[in-house]
Amino acid sequence: MSDIAVNLSDQNIADIADYYAGLSCGVPATSDGIEMPATAEPCASCHGNDGRSERDDFPHLAGQKEGYLRRQLTLLRNSADIDPAVDFDVDLRHHGKMAPNVESLSSDEIASLAQYYSGLSCQ
Question: In this model, does residue 15 exceed pLDDT 60?
Fold first, then answer.
């Protein structure tokens, strides 16, 4: 994405964000019966109890693709102890606020979180 995004103007970015914000997610409108894993409790403080953040600076998790969530959580976990001042590989993703929440997650816990949030309605 960096190679593409570097050439976008501020207006291009705003237009693209508006376009994607207006799309529906295609997840069923009901998420009844989906049990929240205990590992999701820390997520709710930033990403909302239902995976839909009320803040613009935190993304919605509800309705995201399961594989995408699993990959991002794995990258965040594997990068939790990386020094962000050091230039690192694209297969690592450091985020200071996320690091303490993901560094101890097992692969099974990550899979459970990804399955949970992908099954929630984004609407």
Answer: yes
Closest CA to 43 of 93, 107, 109: 109
Asked if 61 contacts 75 with a C-beta cutoff of 8 angstroms, the reply is no
Q: Which CATH superfamily is domain 28-118 in?
A: Cytochrome c-like domain (1.10.760.10)
E strand or H helix at 11, and its extent?
helix 10-21
Report the distance separating Cα 97 and Cα 108, nearest Å: 22
- Stretch 73-90: mean pLDDT, rounded? 68
pTM equals 0.71
Q: What's the DSSP call for residue 60?
A: -
